[in-house]
Amino acid sequence: MRRIFQKIYEIGIVTEPVARDAEYERLGRELKRRVDERFRGSLAIRQVDAGSCNACELEIQALNNPYYDLERFGLHFVASPRHADLLLATGPVSRHMEEALRRTHAAMPEPRWVIAAGDCAAGRGEFVCGYACAGAVSAVLPVDLEIPGCPPTPLQLLQGLLVLMNA
Amino acid sequence: MAASLVAAAPLDAAAPLAMNAAGWLLALAQTALFVAAAPLFAGWIKRVKCWLQNRQPPPLAQGYRDLRRLFAKRVRLADQASVVFRIAPYLVFGATILAAAVTPFLSVNLPTAAITDAIALTGFFAFARFFLALAGMDIGTAFGGMGSSREMTLSALAEPAMLMALFTVAMVASSTNLATVITSIETQMVMTRPSLWFAAFGFLLVAVAETGRIPVDNPATHLELTMIHEAMILEYGGRHLGMLEWAAQLKLLVYAVLAINIFNPWGIAHEDSASALGLAIAAMAGKLLVLGIVLAVTETLQAKLRLFRVPVFLMLAFTLALGGMLSFIILEAG
User: Fold this and answer.
1) What CATH code would you report for A44-166?
2) How far is A65 from chain B (nearest CA, A)?
């Protein structure tokens, strides 16, 4: 027991320091400044998957991990549309999710914004014209901003959020 | 003792009245500080957790900003919402503030602490929980009802354990009044009383369950199926949600302050002088910082328990509290 603790103490922490993405950090600080100004330092996001292939969700999920860590800029994801200010929709709105997307938007208290993230949601993907889809998010809801990319990287999502703040 | 107090009272009738007014003012100020500090304590726990997870923490004031955002938003109610749903946030927030008001925070010399006791405190929390559970079921969504049913199931197990722990300290102090309990425990050697050790551990386990922290509930979860407290407030928005979140943070701080003041009360003020209150504020802040670190470390080390294992957890809390009472009766009384 004593030996193993001694060993742990002698070796110390060998994890290498993370190389931070300078561009992301710069945009993040800018975003935080804008959130502080326009939203008084706090913004809640509700994400809805309206028939996406989950590639967009993987990238959005990455915003929550310790590397990108969106929460330190004052934005966080919430579990209910009633808690949210911003609706982040992905996917070529499938007919089954069309009503759910409408209801999610209707449940959000004002003031509220809608972002369509990814090529499908922006009406550019290959699935949008299929018979099972209602088309881009803008065909169902008033969209404030479209973020292109298949899927949009965390950096692109952050740039999109910044555009919304500056609009 | 009692006789001498009664005899002394008529001699100087004006003094107690003046002291009373000042006392109520102090109680009011202390309650305001209690309510205002609640988001800060929650933010501190979050900050320590961020450090442990190798994250960069949001600013300490983020809790206040989130509340400000919620209070600035419009409320959007479901069509089916009844009057219960609308008044529940006010009742829950109000009852939690009352619970904070009767808890000795910085001073034991409070009129609010003198007129209530530990059972009334538990009652305030039970009142808040009852209306929150009603509100959870009011809209008729599946998750709200599920959250309410889970909350009531767990509270049926947590409340007896909580009362048993409080009864143990009440027996040691021969009073259920919290101010008397704290004064009495401060003068006794806590380390030499096994009953208080048992009660302290039992109380800590119940406090974790009652305030909805890991391993019983996860305040940061997005998975509806694992939610307890969060499931009941899914349908709330705007200022209603702000009040409920503030109430949850305040409840956490009340339990933290109870745990600190009952089992480790040194530094608490006994008179209303500036130096005594200053020392009390410093001691309480220091102890809350340490307790926040302990909470964050235990929450980081543990995974959330499966719902069906939570009764075992609460049973352990009850057994510890019962052990405290038994060890008082067998080892210490008489």
Assistant:
1) 3.40.50.12280
2) 9
**Contact of B134 with B82, CB cutoff 8 Å:** no
Please compute Rg for chain A using Cα positions.
19
Q: How many residues are present in chain B?
A: 334
Nearest Cα of chain A lies from the Cα of B283 at a distance, in angstroms, of 30
From B217's Cα to the closest Cα of chain A, the distance in A is 15
Please tell me the distance from the alpha carbon of residue B163 to that of residue B324, in angstroms, as a whole number: 12
Task: Residue B62: list chain A partners with CB under 8 A.
Answer: 41-42, 74
Residue of B nearest to A112 (CA): B73
Q: Report pTM.
A: 0.91
In a domain, B11, yes or no: no
Chain B residues touching A83 at Cβ < 8 A? 234, 236-237, 241
Residues of chain B in contact with residue A77, where contact means CB-CB under 8 angstroms, are: 222
Domains in chain B, number: 1
Q: Per residue in B217-265, pLDDT tens? A: 988 888 888 889 999 999 999 999 999 999 999 999 999 999 999 998 8
Pairing status of strand A145-147 against strand A43-49 = unpaired
Contact yes or no for B237/B73 (Cβ under 8 A): yes
Give the ipTM.
0.89
Domain that holds residue B235: 19-332
For residue B115, CA distances in Å to A109, B101, B179, B317 come to 42, 11, 10, 29
Q: Are A125 and A146 in contact (CB under 8 A)?
A: no
Closest CA to A154 of A38, A55, A87: A55
